[in-house]
Design goal:
Number of helices: 11
CATH architecture: Orthogonal Bundle
CATH class: Mainly Alpha
Largest sheet: none
Number of domains: 1
Structural class: mainly alpha
Helix content: over 70%
Strand content: under 5%
Order of helices and strands: HHHHHHHHHHH
CATH topology: MetI-like fold
Radius of gyration: 26 Å
Number of strands: 0
Distance between the termini: 44 Å
Length: 283
């Protein structure tokens, strides 16, 4: 056996021991899942009438329209607000003027450190408590916009700094001003680098809309409560709502993968080899 750089290759006894650990771990997991299914069955959570509500047109319309649609609206509003705020704060942190850079730094650090749920409660206490569902809706959007905008500000700042310095230096050599360099040279290249991180933060914003449950905001978690209180089917409700979040997030992940291939691109091994061969060729 050839040794590894980090550790010696395992011997026959170690391999056998690792196989035993693997088998024991799998058996424990299977036993835990079987016990959980048994408890759900014993509590009646797997009976057909507990799931029938999800095939009833009236309740299905409530889940899709009042739940899913409002969740997507809050997520889209929060994502748009976060992107705008992230660009402004990210560029502000790169400013050479202290009067601009310091306030942007303070805003980013404050809202990035403050829990999202606490932000929602603050906004709801100050604005949404007397305005019903619409007030709670906007409290969720504002809270998620501020938090995710603060996170995206660091993403945008890092993306701009990741662009090779020669790009900006060449633009300055052509007589372009700093605003022109940022808008036409740095940001377009930085966005390509930041696409995966931006989409990942969109997933976070979508999932965090579920926290609106604490301030009675409309959404999937809000419509789940009256359903399981009426039918006493807590597990089916959580399973269905969780599955809907998973499907939506998988769609966003697929969008991220497509966007990265579309705008960033991935070189195939043959292309990489050809580029390497071209770069090392002498004139």
């Amino acid at each position: 056996m050839s040794g590894s750089v980090l550790f010696d290759a395992p011997g026959p006894r170690t391999i056998a021991r690792h196989r035993i650990y693997t088998v024991v771990t799998v058996l424990v997991i299977v036993a835990a899942v079987a016990f959980m299914v048994y408890k759900l069955y014993a509590d009646g959570q797997l009976e057909a009438d507990k799931w029938e509500v999800f095939t009833t047109p009236g309740y299905l319309e409530t889940i899709l329209v009042d739940g899913l649609l409002n969740t997507l609206k809050m997520a889209v509003g929060a994502i748009i607000g976060a992107l705008v705020l992230g660009v402004v704060l990210g560029i502000g942190k790169l400013s050479e003027h202290r009067v601009v850079r310091v306030p942007c730094w303070a805003i980013v650090e404050f809202f990035r450190a403050l829990p999202v749920l606490m932000l929602m409660i603050i906004f709801f206490s100050a604005y949404g408590i007397t305005r019903g569902d619409s007030g709670a809706f906007w409290c969720v959007v504002w809270a998620l916009s501020l938090y995710n905008g603060a996170v995206l500000a660091e993403v945008f700042r890092a993306g701009v700094l990741a662009v090779p310095k020669g790009q900006a230096e060449a633009a300055y050599a052509l007589g372009m001003r700093k605003t022109q360099v940022m808008r036409t040279i740095l940001l377009p290249q930085a966005v390509k680098i930041m696409i995966p991180a931006i989409i990942s933060q969109c997933v976070v914003a979508l999932k965090d809309t579920s926290l609106g449950y604490a301030i009675t905001a409309p959404g999937l978690t809000a419509i789940g409560k009256p359903i399981y209180l009426e039918f006493q089917n807590h597990v089916p409700v959580i399973f269905v709502i969780g599955a809907m979040y998973v499907v939506i997030n998988l769609c966003l992940t697929g969008a991220a993968t497509w966007a990265q291939r579309k705008f960033v691109g991935e070189k195939k091994p043959l292309e990489v080899a050809m580029v390497g061969e071209t770069d090392t060729r002498t004139p």
